[in-house]
Every structure is written in C-alpha cells, then in structure tokens.
Amino acid sequence: MQSLIKRVKPAKLAKADPAPSRWAWRMQRLMLTPTFRFGLRFGVPFCLALTAGTIYLSDEARRGQLADIYANARTSIQQRPEFMVKLMAIDGVEGVLAADVRAAVPVEFPTSSFDLDLPALRQAITDLPGVKQASLRVKPGGVLQVSVQPRVPVAVWRSQDGLLLIDAEGSPIGQLVSRGDRTDLPLVVGEAANIRVSEALELIRAAAPLGERLRGLVRMGERRWDVVLDREQRILLPETQAVQALERVIALEGAEEVLSRDVARVDMRLAQRPTVQMNKEATQELWRIRQISGQ
C-alpha cells in the first residue's frame, strides 16, 4: 500500500500566463501614443477649465463684476503719474501757424498717454495747409513734443480763388489779401499754374537779368508760359525749351535792346521765326511816317 502511494506523483499546478489581456495590451499601446498622451496632459485640463469657466461666466452678474475689476485695474494703471501728459510743446513753427497746430490737437491736459491717438493727431496736423511734415512723441516728464516742418512759400499764385501762397511743390499754404503783402515773391497766374511751379521758378531765374522789369508769369492754356514785363510787354514762350527761348530774348536785349524799344510782344513760339510786334502807339506813328514819306 505504501509502495503504491509512493508511485503516485502529485499533479503539477498550472502556471499563470504572463501576457496581458487584449484590452490591457491596447491600453498600453494607446498610452505610448504621443497624441493621446498630449491630450491627457493638456486637452483634458483645458476642457475642464473651459467647462468651469463657461459655467461661471454664464451668470451676468459675475461677468459684470469681472468687467468692473478689469476697468478699475486698467484705469488705476493709466492714471499713474508717470503715464500722465501735462503739456504740449511745438517746435519748428511760430505765430499763426503754431496757433493752428495747437487748435488741431483738441486735447485737454493733463491726460493719460494711453488716451492719445498719436497717428490721428499727426494726420490732423499734416492736413493743415502750411504744414509739410509733422512728428509727435511723448517725452519723459509728461510733455507731448510736436515737431513741425512748415511749407516754405516760393511764389504767389493768382487763381480764381484769389491770391495764394504756394511752395515748391505747388501746394497752397495760405491766402493773401493783396499782392503788396509779399512783393518779395514772384507772381504766377493762370489755371493749374501751381502744378508747373518748378518750371516757372526756372524761368524766373533765367529772367534775372531783366531785374525789376519782371512782373510775373502767366500760364496759357495749361500748355506754355508768357513772361509779363512792365510797360505791358510780353514774351510768348514755346511749350518746350522755354528757358532757352527766354535766354535768346535776353541775349537780343543785351545786343540790340529789343525790349527797350516800343515793343508789345516778342513771340518765340516758333524757334525758327521769332516775331516782334510793336505797340499800338508805335504802329500808328510808323503808319504816319509812311504816309508822310509817300506824299
């Protein structure tokens, strides 16, 4: 009996399978995915915070309270002394133009620098007729510095609107009451004469030998210029090479004193055939002499 018991071996216990289950294996693979890990780390907290914020801000009273807190905080920062602008300084102009610049900046001081719209203020200043360029900046100490480059008048333009000062670009600067207010500037007359002011200035420089005899320039048909002298004399210039034609007339004046005679017009519109027209009195006298000679 005992020998029979010894011969019977005990049954072996089954070992547990170390491999994970199918769902555990899929979860482990999913956790190794960068996108899924990023979603767990950032996406879930963001969604929870968004949901909580939406629930909290769904109450109108809470939204109003937050808006008041933000407005008060912003005002307290903007109204701090280091951000306050107390006065305005204008450089580059004086007198009437400086007063116009000051009027174009409708700001009541002191005010916060956060409330200043510098591009809009600059545009308002450059829109003034006498201002060419302007720059604005807030300097330490609460000073709004306005630097203005004024337009420099180079001529007086007589148009349908009266007498206007114009700069080298032909832009109107201001209106004159009478020609006598700026006798130091040359006179240009005619429609759109200001557009060709650079050409007019070249003619005026070329006419310097004529001295005080020069009265002004007249733009004819928006095509060419007439040089107006005293004694109602005119030099009719061509559309092109007007300066050269005027220099020829001045050379004739120096050689033969053409403009010192009883001449009403010197027509240079045809370069190959300049024409001189006598004035009315000289023409009548010439006819009288011819009649006497014919007798």
Reconstruct the topology from this structure.
Elements: H1 2-7, H2 22-31, H3 34-57, H4 60-78, E1 84-85, E2 87-91, H5 96-103, E3 111-112, H6 118-126, E4 131-139, E5 143-150, E6 155-159, E7 162-166, E8 172-176, E9 187-189, H7 197-206, E10 214-220, E11 224-229, E12 234-236, H8 242-256, E13 263-267, E14 275-278, H9 280-294
List keywords for this structure.
3-stranded mixed beta sheet, single chain, 295 residues, 9-stranded mixed beta sheet, 9 helices, alpha/beta, elongated
How would you describe what is shown here?
The protein is of the alpha/beta class. 39% of the residues lie in helices and 23% in strands. The chain contains nine helices and 14 strands. The protein has helices at residues 2-7, 22-31, 34-57, 60-78, 96-103, 118-126, 197-206, 242-256, 280-294, and strands at residues 84-85, 87-91, 111-112, 131-139, 143-150, 155-159, 162-166, 172-176, 187-189, 214-220, 224-229, 234-236, 263-267, 275-278. The strands form three sheets. Strands 8-7-6-9-10-11-12-13-14 form a nine-stranded mixed β-sheet. A three-stranded mixed β-sheet has the order 2-5-4, with helices on one face. Strands 1-3 form a two-stranded antiparallel sheet. Helix 7 (197-206) links the parallel strand 9 and strand 10. It is elongated and about 155 Å long.
Which descriptor suits the 3D outline?
elongated
- Structural category is alpha/beta
Order of helices and strands: HHHHEEHEHEEEEEEHEEEHEEH
Report the mean per-residue pLDDT as an integer: 84
Strand percent estimate: 15-25%
Largest sheet: 9 strands, mixed
Radius of gyration: 45 Å
User: How many distinct beta strands?
Assistant: 14
Return residue spans where pLDDT drops below 50 for at least 5 consecutive residues: none
Number of helices, counting only DSSP H or I runs of 4 residues or more: 9
Distance between the termini: 191 Å
Helix content: 25-40%
Strand order of the largest sheet: 8-7-6-9-10-11-12-13-14
